[in-house]
Every structure is written in C-alpha cells, then in structure tokens.
Amino acid sequence: MKFIDEFRNKEIAQGLIRRIFEISTRPIQLMEVCGTHTVSFFRYGIREMLPKHIRLLSGPGCPVCVTPNRDIDLAIALSRQKDMLLATFGDMMRVPGSTSSLQKEKAEGRNIRMVYSPLEALRMAKENSGKKVVFLAVGFETTSPAIALTLLQAHNEGIRNLYFLNSQKRVPPALRALLQSEKVQIDGFVLPGHVCAVIGREPFQFIAKEFKRPAVITGFEPLDLLQAVWMLVNQIEKEQAFVEIQYTRVVHDEGNPVAVSKMDQAFQQDGALWRGLGWIPESGCRLKDPFSSMDARQIDADVEPSREHPGCLCGEILQAVRTPPECPLFNTVCHPDHPVGPCMVSIEGACFTYFKFQMNPA
Amino acid sequence: MCLSVPGKVVEIQNNMAKVEVGGVLRDVSMDVCPDVAVGEYVLIHTGFAIQKLDEKEALETLDLLRRMAEIR
To answer: What is the value of pTM for the model shown?
Structure first.
C-alpha cells in the first residue's frame, strides 16, 4: 500500500462515473473549498467526465489568494528595513501587493528568502542573530501546527530575533460567511481533507445542522474525488444533509488532538481580513500573550495605503460569484507570466488552474 | 497550499524522522504525530508529519469502491 497509485485505478474510476450518472437527476452546484482539490479535479479530467448538470465551483481555499494586500504591503515595508530578513512560502513571493511584490523587492536587493518549512525561518534567525527575521505566515489549519510548533520552539529556546507576520486563516468561519451571504447557490461542499486531518469533522457540522447542506470530507486522488461527488449527489437526491468523511484513511472525527493543542497553545482566535470576503469574525488568529513580543505587527513600518488593481475579479472569484474566464483581465492583462491578481499567481489559484488546464490542455 | 504527501517512516530519532517519499529521504518533524512506528506511513506538510495514514481504512475504502464499480 503506497496510498497513491491504488486511488488512481482507471477501471474503478469508470465504474464510479457510471454510478454517478445513474443517480444524478437534477442540476446542482458543488463547491470544492480547497485549491488543491480544484487542481485535482482539473488534472485528472474529472470535470469533463461528470454529468453536464453537475457544476463545480472553486471556493476560497487558497491561503495565498485570500491574503489581503494590506498584509503583503506590510511584509514589503518590513523587508525594506535595515538588518531585516523576510522569509515566506514560495507562492507568496510573486503575489502583487498594492504597487510591488516580494519578488520585485528581492530583485532590488532586499533580503527575502523562500522557505519550504517554517523551521527554516527559525534556523535563519539562529544563524543571523544581528538581524530581525520575519516569517510571513500564511496558511489554513493544515499549516497552523507547523507554524505553532516553530513559534513554541523559538520561544523555548529563547530566540529573540524571530517574528511572525501572522496572516493565517481558519476555513469554517469563511464557509459560514459564504453560506450567510447567499450570493451563490451551493448545494454541497467537497471539504478540504488536509484541513480536516488536523481539526476533524466537528468544526464543519454547522453546514449540515444550520444550513441543511451536505458536505463530504475528501481526499485528493481521483477515486477520492469521484467517491465524494457520488456521496454528495446521493445525499442531495435523497434530500439529506450530513457531513460525511470519505477520506477515512486520514481523517478522524477528532482530527489530530496533539496538533490542535499546539495551535491552541500558540494562537488565540481572532477576526481576519480576507481578500474578496472582507472581515470575517473568528476566521483568523493572533499570537497569544506570552508570545506577543514575537508579533511582527508590533514593528514600526512605513506601509503604503493599500489599493486593488481596478478590474481584477479575484475577490468575486474567491466567492465563486464569477469564474476566472469571466474576468476581463484573464489571459489578457493577467497571465501567469505577469499576474495581476493572486488567483493567477498561486499554483493552486483558480485563475492559474483554469489557465493551465483550459487554455493549454495537455 | 494544503498539499501534503504520504511517505513511509524509515527511521525515528527523538522527534525527527527520516521519511521516504518517492525514493527520496526527507527529514520530518514528528512532534504532532508521536505514536507512529517505523514502517508506517505519515502525511507530510511543510516539514511536519500531520497525520498517520490508516492502512486498514484505506483497504476498506478500496474494497467499497471496487464493489460500487462492480469490479471483482
């Protein structure tokens, strides 16, 4: 068992597609919340194989895409300071802020580094004791344990020059906001399997209990996606609403309690600003009091006033109100080589994914 | 960004493990997955194991899918 190839079996996939056609009778819109799911649906060609009346909508599940300009502008302002080293995940480098990006700043000589793990930022802090190291921390609950553990380790080791520019987000409050806004009809949710690997099923129960919509916690291989679509169609056709787990090899009801306890040790729930969705209560977190001296927002910085590119529809695309091809900038002004909005930058952004798989089918 | 990959734990020392992913060994923190043994699979995200993979559940899912797809 390698946990990958087994879930890419063509014969089983074809059988599942037949089962979906057999039970699906009505037009529905399903939202895949997670950008990784959007990529998988395209990559394995599943969108084309499903009944035409099943429409898949991409949700706000790309942490890079939902990071507001305000935070990118702050990171840029900090990177311009003397004796400053800024570290972040690769995708954040190219996201345009109001007038610049971290990549442009790096080209102009700022000390900005791309990391794979937050632990690398901790190592940089140890190796550069004369500098301030700021880690621009983006991510959903999948990434939060890694950020929490890095923060706790730095604190325990008495490292005083590592700061966190915290722009982490929590998924369940964003889905509540989407459901409350009623801007788009969502008949069922494909829920993010790796967020749920950490926080479990409970935080998503409100989708079924309060909003009467079915949801399925789903893995990322083709058979996972097909099984989840079948489970959602089955619930919708029977007019049921439960939060089911398809990804049982990874997700348990309670998630990973050790990871959650580390997150709780480091972070306090707080409101957060999302690109497109605006301010959402309890959808973010801040550093708990014992660690407040590690909060990069306390560092004085000369930040430019934030502004969005006129015409960019990323905000509406993140809410699934519009699709990427509906944006007038898509594949004209905005292109993976010269992205205008974050959804065209991130390899899991909806615009980049549409561009990659629809404009240039393999 | 929630991409995570499964890998096989081949060695554990204190809270760090060597985990094999596609023939390559990676150093992975086991801080939030303390109850994993050598030979088991974990899901890796940004240098951390975030969850253990359950082989029994995986086999049950595949068995169910084969029956749904009517493949013997």
So the answer is: 0.96
- Cβ contact B16:B28 at 8 Å: yes
Show residues of chain B in contact with A221, CB under 8 Å: none
Chain B residues in contact with A256 (beta carbon < 8 A) = 32-33, 50-51
* Structure token pair of residue A85: 């080293």
pLDDT at B59 over 90: yes
Domain interval for residue B66? 5-71
How many Å lie between the alpha carbon of A54 and the closest alpha carbon of chain B?
Answer: 20
The predicted pLDDT at position B72 comes to: 57
- pLDDT of A328-358, one tens digit each? 999 999 999 999 999 999 989 999 999 999 8
Task: For chains A and B, count residue pairs whose Cβ atoms are closer than 8 Å.
Answer: 137
Count of structural domains, chain B? 1
Here the ipTM equals 0.97
| Mean pLDDT confidence for A131-159 | 98
Domain with residue B12: its CATH number is 2.30.30.140
Residue type, A351: C
Number of other residues whose CB lies within 10 A of the CB of residue A219: 26
